[in-house]
């Protein structure tokens, strides 16, 4: 067993798995503490490097492309400090860091772990159900459906559409960009019907506009990862999703929802007449409301 314990976290390697546990110190980002312990099988690893610096060094674990739904969902856009595969190492522990890096490299050679992209996710992603309250509303995922409940501060176009519920079978992918604190981010659920939509995130009823606390909004990556882990792996996406038939039949509007539907359509019509919504935005948002019922 090779192990390194730091304020930033603990890495332990038993020959087959790298077990990464985030530290509890206040300097450890909320995202890593919430994401929790990660068990990385050796077959998911492509390499490891120790980067020494004058005061502190860094251990970086590199994973094979397509092995981890977290990296797939975030596209390498997680801030360095929030990256669970990065460990800050005190300079007096650099020898231990180099030792654990060498042990992992040696095991990769012995097991002849391939470096080419994985054909299936080798890590499970966060467990479900998972819910996150962002600056634009609450987003939840139970393993089969995504639900978005808009905040009072959300754009009135979104609030007019009501809660958004999307089946995982209708999703093509999740697009995610973090809120950096300087520029807004977003999380967009791309369906077969909205794959070509050009609505901005603040008006898109299938997107969360991330403009508030960067620390809290970063937690939306938990939902993006959980959903991504349950979508077809990128290596299987040889068929154009737009042309792929629906896996579940559309549900007809329920009679007891008729009044709510009419009210929301009237609200959208008023926004369109007032010039708040363009013709394209009105058509897209109206279609989203109708699909929701």
Task: Give a description of the structure.
The structure is a single chain. The protein has 293 residues and is α+β, with helices and mostly antiparallel strands. It has 8 helices and 14 strands. It has a 4-stranded antiparallel β-sheet with strand order 1-2-3-4. The chain has a 4-stranded antiparallel β-sheet with strand order 8-9-10-11. A 3-stranded antiparallel β-sheet has the order 5-6-7, covered by helices on one side. It comes from Streptomyces sp. NBC_00093. Residues 11-105, 139-228 form the DUF4429 domain. This is DUF4429 domain-containing protein. Pfam families: DUF4429.
Strand order of the largest sheet: 1-2-3-4
Provide the helix percentage: 25-40%
Task: Report how far the terminal alpha carbons are from each other.
Answer: 55 Å
Task: Compute the average pLDDT.
Answer: 89
> Helix and strand string, N-terminal first?
EEEHEEEHEHEEEHEEEEHHHH
Structural class: alpha+beta
Strand portion: 25-35%
Tally of DSSP β-strands = 14
The gyration radius over C-alpha positions equals 22 Å
- Uncertain segments: 239-253
Largest sheet geometry: 4 strands, antiparallel
Tally of contiguous helical segments:
8
Shape label: elongated
